[in-house]
Design goal:
With 151 residues, this protein is α+β, with helices and mostly antiparallel strands. The protein folds into 2 domains: 83 residues, no CATH class; 51 residues, Nucleic acid-binding proteins (OB fold (Dihydrolipoamide Acetyltransferase, E2P)). Helix 2 runs antiparallel to helix 3. The radius of gyration is 28 Å and the shape is rod-shaped. The N and C termini lie far apart (77 Å).
Amino acid sequence: MNWISNNLSEILIMAGLALLAIEVVVLGFSTFVLFFVGLAAVVAGGLMTVGVLPESMLSALSSVGVLTALWAILLWRPLKSMQGNVERKKVTSDLVGHSFILEEAVSVTKNPAYSYSGIQWKLSSEQELSAGTLVEVTGVAVGKFIVQAKV
């Protein structure tokens, strides 16, 4: 226990950096709680190192709590708006463009299976396609090829 109280500022800084790393690397900056606590711990440890705060467990806990609330109040809205500004783009797949000849007819109501690359894919199409038609994959969903007749 004596070692902790003698090195409290360094422990706070290391714990804060660890929390920040966990928030960014593991959680992908999806929750802000660890970010606020980690930032508060780093700042509190820095203030203890320069002598602004006394190196005691009570001042460490209270300053981390107060600084966490302060960081949350100051940064919540900017971080939340930054998180909402995500560019949505359609994911492309190397399976799109794959051509093959249908063994069974495909329609809106009939979705036969097609084996490709060791996986059974359900086929779907907005138009009626008869067996023997050369088709091309235009979209991919989980376990599903969306096909249309190749021109």
